[in-house]
Write a structure and sequence with these properties.
Chain lengths: ~210, ~300
């Protein structure tokens, strides 16, 4: 009987660590293709209403001294989003004076601009939320999860795409800060590494 | 309704109440359980973003009575407590698939007016696979939909091979079981609704020179959950099981929960009880107990 059980258990026991090794070693994976991507199609053409009372294209966030735009997809009901509010605001505080603009985008089908205005105020966002009820921007970036973030350059090219960091909804001291690292590397004239990571937020609710 | 003698597991309901109290005390309430919502429906189930998990579970069942062939409930005259621990692991396969293996260890304590006995050993190993076509919360217009299949191997000791007087060293059914089913689930704000249907086939086996027939079991589960702060979820479920040919039937109610301790560890489980009301069950023992599981996951 013991041999019978061992035969059944052993393959799984051996396979488990082997299978886990690549996925657990680093949630982020380098993707050099990302850095070579062409400009986002809707970068200059799609205008969306923002919680600041103005309509914006992504291009419109680039002022004379703006070098990069950090776009984070937003979900009002996602605890992962709520958990990352403080880190988003910290990123804004750290980088906005160095030529980095921030914006959130709400692409959930059941969202509304008025609800986003309430949320932006409640969370104390120092940047607007764009209302993208039709999900056009989410489609353009293939954004599926809340807190999914892209960093764009002045030409609308995606330099980084993925999570804000490696945490889900319980923030840890040893998280890997993907966006912070990517911005640091960009300001050091290096390509972000990793240039693509997993985003661990809730599904963006779509039709 | 017949008198139900006090159960040592009635405290499990108090534990569940405490669980509710703890998880309800958070400052803010985010409506959408990011990732743990579906976990309360199954201890070995990977939720959104998880690539693998391992876990330990403990199930304790007090057999409080039984239903006879006439569907009348009768309280147990003796004490029979079944403990089962399991170690389980689940791996993500492709994007929406997952495979699970569970290895149980069973202990049974049986006490009559004249004799007490404790026995146990390795139980029946179970393997299962699940594929989710759509995950709950992914779409407003489509609910989460998944199919699953499994096999339980007769690695435990069947009752006819038990050596102890009261059979407490029996740890398995002795039969290979094949199962398949489907699940539909969706979140509506703070609410979580799930429906599961499954069928089990128990293959023939040799018992003292004769072959048992193939038996079939059908089960339907309805689950209603409440998504709580801290990504916790509490699910009230009812499962009706029927074996048309035997015939056997049973209704089990359960209150299960999942409480993430952080992004990697979660606590799952809750109390359950078969419903000891005349006419509801037939040819089945009636148990009440609780399940507790610790899960470590990787995203």
């Amino acid at each position: 009987m013991k041999h019978r059980i061992l035969k059944l258990v052993l393959p799984f026991g051996l396979a488990l660590p082997l299978a886990l090794a690549p996925s657990l070693a680093d949630a982020g994976t380098e993707n050099a293709e990302v850095a070579k991507a062409s400009a986002t199609p809707l970068f200059a053409s799609l205008s969306l209403p923002g919680t600041d009372g103005r309509d914006h294209t992504l291009k419109s966030f680039f002022r004379e001294n703006t070098r990069y735009l950090v776009v984070t997809f937003f979900s009002a009901s996602c605890p992962c989003q709520e958990a990352h509010d403080s880190r988003l605001k910290e990123l804004h505080k750290q980088w906005s004076s160095r030529g980095v603009e921030f914006v959130s985008v709400d692409s959930e089908a059941d969202s509304s601009l008025s609800a986003d205005i309430t949320e932006a105020r409640r969370r104390g966002y120092p940047f607007p939320i764009l209302s993208d009820v039709d999900g056009k921007l989410a489609d353009a970036f293939d954004a599926k999860f809340a807190t999914f973030t892209v960093i764009l350059d002045r030409e609308g090219r995606v330099l980084y795409r993925g999570g804000i960091d490696s945490d889900k909804s319980h923030l840890t001291d040893n998280a890997r800060h993907y966006v912070r690292t990517a911005l640091s590397q960009l300001f050091a004239d290096q390509a972000p590494n990793p240039a693509e990571t997993k985003s661990l937020g809730c599904f963006l609710r779509r039709r | 309704m017949p008198f139900v003698r006090p159960s040592p597991f009635r405290d499990a309901f108090l534990i569940a109440a405490a669980f509710l109290a703890v998880t309800s005390s958070a400052r803010t309430a985010s409506a959408q359980a990011c990732c743990a919502g579906a976990a309360a429906l199954g201890t070995g189930r990977l939720v959104l973003h998880e690539e693998a998990l391992i876990g330990l579970d403990l199930r304790a069942t007090d057999v409080i009575g039984s239903f006879a062939a006439d569907a009348q409930y009768r309280s147990a005259k003796a004490t029979q407590v079944e403990l089962e621990q399991g170690i389980f692991g689940t791996l993500r396969v492709l994007e929406k698939g997952q495979v699970t293996l569970r290895v149980p260890f069973v202990e049974t304590f049986h006490s009559t007016r004249t004799r007490s006995e404790l026995g146990g050993g390795p139980g029946d190993i179970a393997a299962s696979a699940r594929w989710d076509f759509v995950l709950a919360g992914e779409s407003l217009s489509l609910p989460g939909m998944g199919v699953f299949a499994g096999v339980v191997l007769p690695t435990g000791r069947p009752i006819e091979k038990a050596e102890k007087t009261l059979g407490t060293d029996a740890t398995g059914t002795g039969a290979t079981q094949l199962s398949a089913g489907f699940g539909v689930e969706q979140t509506f704000g703070d609410l979580f609704v799930g429906v599961i249907g499954s069928a089990v086939v128990r293959l023939p086996r040799e018992v003292r020179g004769s072959t048992t027939p193939t038996t079939y079991e059908l089960a339907a589960t309805a689950a209603f959950g409440l998504l709580l702060p801290k990504e916790a979820v509490v699910v009230l479920s009812s499962t009706f099981t029927i074996e048309p040919e035997t015939p056997q039937r049973m209704l089990r109610l359960g209150l299960s929960g999942a409480l993430p301790l952080d992004d990697r560890w979660r606590l799952q489980g809750g109390p359950f009880s078969d419903v000891p009301i005349d006419g509801i069950g037939q040819n089945q023992s009636v148990g009440t107990g609780f399940l507790l599981a610790f899960v470590r996951s990787w995203s």
